[in-house]
Automatic annotation (TrEMBL):
This is ATP synthase regulation protein NCA2. Keywords: Membrane, Mitochondrion, Transmembrane, Transmembrane helix. One of its GO terms (cellular component) is mitochondrial outer membrane. It is a multi-pass membrane protein. The chain crosses the membrane at residues 454-477. InterPro entries: NCA2-like (IPR013946). Pfam families: NCA2. It is found in: Mitochondrion membrane.
């Protein structure tokens, strides 16, 4: 017997699909809901998981992981310290690239700043600044001076914000590096107490960084020219108050502390990304949009001109030009590439193929020479009346013939009929024949050699064009403007990094002697950043030359906070003089 459903159940069954799909759509919409912090966090997390850059090593003993009693906790803390170092250095590099651009703009003249404000910030800024300039002209105001002043304010604000961010991150990086260097040995001997203490210290340093960046947020909230830049303050996760006195932690508490560090790193990276995006330098296409626009206009005019001469408009000019260009290219290739190469190939192979024929030519010359030798030998024996020696040369026997010939010429008619005059003349004809054949053989060799030379000369234009193309392609592939490259400019950049490290080491020592702790930490953070860039730029080249182990140890020594300044300066001097990847390229004179 079937059970009839009630009205409530039937209505519920009818609404069940709609409720299911409404929940499904609500969940999908919430999943696609855009949040800047979530977006940047997911973006940086995906990038970090796909590619992790090897950065400056931690100031830990080389046998830290092997000597640690609790390998799992030690490896986790080592991994989180490497992540903190790598991500802070990456953010500093992102800030540094944009800061260098704005500093270069700030050092230029007011007219150059005004040009940047009008022509190098995109079409929208061009239209806006042009409207302001025209309004100022109409109001008889110093509109150009106002543009220069707004350009200075625009650039100075970005320099100030990015410099403050770099300073805050450099101090944070230096404090963490000093703390790790301080407890490095103790992490091996007493890991149960030092690991929690180190995590607590990192949490306190995050709080200090939050207060420092919060000061920027409070100062720049009112007079910022960038909309929405300082609307969201930076708030880090805090460790629970319990068990922060350095006592032994459980594995769960260590995992929670490490998770808190990663959450703070994600928040820091999201905040830095949002600030850098608002204060970043314009893209290359934005800076040169005027050139690109002129190029687009020129390309459009050229396209219209080509369209006018194409077959679409009933003209055969374009087809004729293409055919002429094709014929010229084919003719050049045939005359200066194909034919010379084929001629050289044929001449070379013909030389090898006709080597036996050449031997027959030499054989003919040899037969003529042997015939002449026998004729001279017979004439000499008959003239002297005695047998000639076996080793008698043709020249000696030819002298006998010439002496007899001179005597016979005294009575030419009589000796022509009854003497040896005719025989002596035939021997001289045979000698002339031998000389002619020898000369023809040498001439044939000279002509063959000249044919190859002429073919090579015909191929020289194509050779020089190919060489030029190869040089252009090589220069395009070998773009060594950065320190990681292989050319002369890259070597200069790497040497400048060492000079920058040396200068900052001396400045750090001055701050230490003056008792300026914050400035000393700031300069130490910049030293670590420069050493990280040097570490990344020389690694591949030093590995190829077999210098990497020694150079790596020297870079690690330069990063040690406790090493004396004099020793660090000696290391920088050795680095720039000894290692091949940092030596200057000598130009040939």
């Amino acid at each position: 017997m079937a059970v009839v459903p009630s009205e409530t159940e039937s209505s519920l069954n009818r609404n069940l699909p709609s409720l299911f799909y409404s929940d499904f759509l609500r969940n999908r919409f919430s999943a696609f809901h855009f949040s800047p912090s979530t977006f940047f966090s997911s973006l940086t997390s995906a990038f970090r998981s796909s590619r992790r850059r090897e950065c400056l090593p931690l100031p830990l003993p080389s046998n830290y992981l092997d000597s640690s009693m609790n390998y799992s906790n030690a490896s986790r803390v080592h991994a989180v310290l490497e992540d903190v170092l790598e991500r802070v250095l990456t953010n500093m590099h992102r800030i540094q690239k944009n800061l260098q651009f704005w500093q270069s703009i700030a050092q230029k003249s007011d007219n150059r700043k005004a040009y940047f404000m009008v022509f190098e910030r995109g079409p929208r800024a061009f239209i806006g600044e042009t409207v302001k300039l025209l309004r100022g002209r109409a109001a008889q105001d110093s509109s150009l001076q106002n543009i220069c002043q707004s350009a200075s304010d625009y650039v100075n604000e970005r320099v100030t914000v990015l410099s403050f961010l770099r300073c805050s991150l450099a101090i944070f990086l230096a404090q963490i590096y000093v703390e790790v260097d301080k407890v490095g040995e103790e992490l091996i001997t007493d890991p149960e107490h030092k690991l929690p203490s180190l995590l607590v210290t990192i949490n306190e340093l995050f709080s200090t960084l939050e207060a420092s960046i919060g000061h920027l947020h409070a100062v720049r909230q009112s007079d910022s020219s960038v909309d929405g830049t300082y609307s969201i303050p930076l708030l880090f996760e805090k460790l629970p108050e319990i068990n922060q006195d350095g006592s032994q932690w459980t594995d769960c508490e260590i995992r929670d502390a490490i998770s808190s560090v990663y959450q703070n790193l994600d928040k820091l990276e999201s905040y830095i990304c949002s600030l850098v995006v608002k204060h970043r330098k314009p893209k290359n296409i934005t800076q040169h949009w005027v050139h690109y626009a002129c190029g687009a206009v020129g390309l459009s005019v050229c396209s219209l001109w080509l369209l006018r001469h194409s077959s679409l408009m009933g003209s055969s000019d374009l087809d004729n030009w293409i055919q002429e260009a094709k014929d010229s290219t084919v003719g050049f290739f045939t005359d200066h590439v194909e034919q010379p190469i084929l001629s050289i190939r044929d001449e070379l192979f013909e030389t090898f193929r006709k080597r036996h024929q050449g031997i027959m030519d030499f054989e003919e010359v040899r037969l003529t020479s042997n015939s002449l030798h026998r004729m001279l030998l017979a004439f000499s024996e008959q003239t002297k009346g005695q047998k000639s020696p076996v080793n008698a040369s043709d020249q000696e026997m030819l002298e006998i013939v010439m002496d007899r010939y001179e005597k016979e010429l005294m009575h030419p008619i009589q000796n022509l009929l009854n003497g040896e005059l005719a025989r002596a003349m035939l021997i001289q004809v045979q000698k002339l024949k031998l000389d002619i054949e020898t000369a023809m053989l040498e001439l044939n060799q000279i002509l063959r050699a000249n044919e190859i030379n002429f073919a090579v000369l015909a191929a020289l234009p194509a050779f020089f064009i190919s060489l030029l193309l190869i040089m252009l392609v090589r220069a395009w592939f070998k773009q060594d403007t950065k320190a990681e490259g292989r050319g002369r400019v890259a070597r200069i950049q790497r040497r400048l990094l060492v000079v920058e490290v040396e200068r900052r080491i001396m400045q750090h020592q001055i701050y230490v002697e003056q008792g300026l702790e914050r400035d000393a930490h700031y300069m130490l953070g910049l030293i670590l950043y420069s050493l990280d860039r040097l570490y990344s730029s020389v690694k591949r080249h030093a590995e190829a030359s077999g210098e990497w182990q020694c150079l790596r140890q020297d870079i690690i020594d330069l990063a040690r906070p406790g090493l004396q300044t004099s020793h660090k300066l000696a290391v920088t001097s050795r680095i720039i003089k000894v290692y091949d990847c940092l030596l200057p390229v000598l130009r040939p004179r």
